[in-house]
Design brief:
Bound molecules: fructose -6-phosphate
Strand content: 15-25%
Helix content: 25-40%
Order of helices and strands: EHEHEEHEHEEHEHEHEH
Largest sheet: 7 strands, parallel
Number of helices: 8
Structural class: alpha/beta
Distance between the termini: 16 Å
CATH architecture: 3-Layer(aba) Sandwich
Strand order of the largest sheet: 1-10-9-6-2-3-5
Number of domains: 1
Number of strands: 10
Radius of gyration: 16 Å
CATH class: Alpha Beta
């Protein structure tokens, strides 16, 4: 596991460059994407690089980690909406090649086919992850089996509380989600994780120093051969 400590601006730039390098080396690369606050600057940097002609996403396929159950893709807190607004609408990607789990309709069938779909696309070349304050990656909450594939899950009270900042009221936050599993994530060839702020310090400690345990889902990444953890000083503070 490689660890890089720098400012949020710098680590975002570095992750964007990791993605650009992968896509420039393999124009039909498969990208694993996350939502949330953490990757926002990375996506802005990728859109800028695309406008400047430093990278093209025309041949790329993407798979997102997760989606809330119960939200249509047009809902402004759905992850499909987030991805369109923060990345896909600003780059030259073919939206037909962007995959986000469904939260409504026959979402269970779609969910059950997701890992096979990723494999059929050739597997994920580079996966970006954020991390929850409870150590979740994607929506794999504490206690999720390390060998899990894409599945439906109940969000913890902590995650609902953390995510309520984006909704008008905590009662509007969905309580269930569909998510790639820990094994699905471990199948990616390269993983970059971004964490900033004191709120993430405990989870980052569990990720880097803690024992490998299903109580701290991110700790499974200790076993991955190509992970870079990008953190700011606050998120790294307990590891010093
Ligand atoms: C989102 C996801 C989540 C977030 C995590 C951190 O697709 O998979 O695991 O990465 O909840 O969220 P932020 O970045 O908003 O602190």
């Amino acid at each position: 596991m490689k660890i890089v400590v720098n400012t949020e601006e710098k680590i975002s730039q570095m992750i964007a460059e990791d993605f650009i390098a992968v896509v420039n080396a393999k124009p039909n690369a498969v990208l694993g994407l996350a939502t949330g606050t953490s990757p926002l600057q990375v996506y802005a940097d990728l859109a800028k690089a695309n406008k400047e002609g430093r990278v093209s996403f025309k041949g790329v396929t993407t798979f997102n980690l997760d989606e809330y159950v119960g939200l249509e893709g047009t809902h402004n807190q759905s992850y499909r909406y987030f991805m369109n607004e923060n990345l896909f609408n600003h780059i030259d990607i073919d939206k037909a090649n962007t995959n986000v789990l469904l939260g409504v309709g026959d979402y269970v069938t779609f969910m059950n086919q997701y890992d096979a779909k990723i494999a059929a696309a050739g597997g994920i070349d580079i996966q970006i992850l954020g991390i929850g304050s409870d150590g979740h990656i994607a929506f794999n909450e504490p206690g999720t089996p390390f060998d899990s594939l894409t599945h439906e899950t109940q969000l913890t009270e902590q995650t609902i509380k953390d995510n309520s900042r984006l909704f008008n009221d905590i009662s509007e936050v969905p309580t269930r989600a569909v998510t790639m599993g820990l094994k699905s994530i471990m199948n990616a060839r390269k993983i970059v994780l971004i964490a900033t702020g004191k709120n993430k310090a405990k989870a980052v400690y569990g990720l880097i120093k803690g024992p490998k345990t299903e109580d701290m889902p991110c700790s499974i990444l200790q076993d991955h051969p190509d992970v870079t953890v990008y953190v700011d000083e606050d998120a790294y503070s307990l590891c010093k």
